[in-house]
Amino acid sequence: MKLQINKNYFAFSVVLLIAEVLIAVYLKTGFIRHTFGDYLVVILLFCLIKSFTNTNSFVIAIGVLCFSFLIEFLQLVNIIQLLNFQNNHLIKIILGTTFQITDLVAYTVGIITIIIFEYKIYKLWIT
């Protein structure tokens, strides 16, 4: 498999990463911080993977959703405390600290958005 960069997905990944960092730094509460950020993070992960691989979009989307669910369920078992990372602010931001069903919903809606978008784009390209 040859590694090649898809500039469109990579550029979108960078924009989403900047948005996520701004949300994390400047918003401490509210819908954008707690739900919209989770919606965006699955799109960011999808675009980052698509930046470097030409794998089927549906497979990547489902993989990202499974990974996101895994991280969320690790929060349920308090993985931060189990790994003794209570004092590591960066790890706490990346992994999160509290399990919430709404996060699972946000991840799922983000993946549905990706699948719809990819399907529409694919349909536009073949017609």
Q: In a few lines, what is going on in this structure?
A:
By secondary structure, the chain is mostly helical.
Descriptive notes:
With 127 residues, the chain is an all-alpha fold. The protein has helices spanning 7-26, 31-52, 57-76, 79-82, 89-95, 101-126. The protein starts with 6 loop residues before the first helix and ends with a helix. The relative contact order is 0.14.
Supply database-style keywords.
127 residues, mainly alpha, 0% strand
| Largest sheet features | none
Measured as a percent range, the helix fraction is over 70%
Alpha plus pi helix count: 6
Number of strands: 0
Question: How many structural domains does the protein architecture include?
Answer: 1
How far apart are the termini? 28 Å
The fraction of residues in strands falls at: under 5%
Listing every helix as H and every strand as E from the N terminus to the C terminus, the arrangement reads HHHHHH
Low-pLDDT stretches: none
Structural class: mainly alpha
Can you give the mean pLDDT? 90
Radius of gyration, taken over Cα atoms and rounded to an integer in Å: 16 Å
Shape by Cα distribution: globular
List the helices and strands and how they pair.
Blueprint: H1 7-26, H2 31-52, H3 57-76, H4 79-82, H5 89-95, H6 101-126
